[in-house]
Amino acid sequence: MIAKSEESYPLSIVPAEDDPDFSEEKQIILSLPHPKWFKDSLLDLPQDLAEATAANKGLILYFGQRICTYCDALLNDTLGKQDIIRYTQNYFDVIAFDVEGKLVITTLSGVRETESAFAQIEKTYFTPSLIFYDNNGKEALRLRGYQSPYEFRAAIDYVVSSAFNRQSFKKYLAQTSSFKKRE
User: pTM (2 decimals)?
Assistant: First the structure.
């Protein structure tokens, strides 16, 4: 589990009016717990992508859920390593989504959906899942399940170096041993 000090802060979001749990009292909904270094997003993905590309960064969409052992392992064991935090922040903004969430987001195509509907559209219901976009906004990689620090470092390099235009991640990973040495 993410330590209390690492949990995200509540977002001030009004739930969708067609949500059966909607009430005027529910003005604050907690976002999915995630490391503080993830981007604070208003859940407008076109805006988030524009901000990332303006900073010459890519975008990573993290899909998880509150009760998920592998999500906790990815967030703590892999994304909790200082070198991975620095490496990721240099090249990407990371935004968290709850595959069961009811927060309304604007997708990259400009459609407004709940987090859970977006996760279904993106086929990211197996958690954790990550979608990487390069600094031009092109989808570059999808990862499903727990990723070791070695695999995650390699994924960052795979996208940043544009290797995704030349070969599959599986082939890239097999050819790359420099990331494993840092385990």
Answer: 0.82
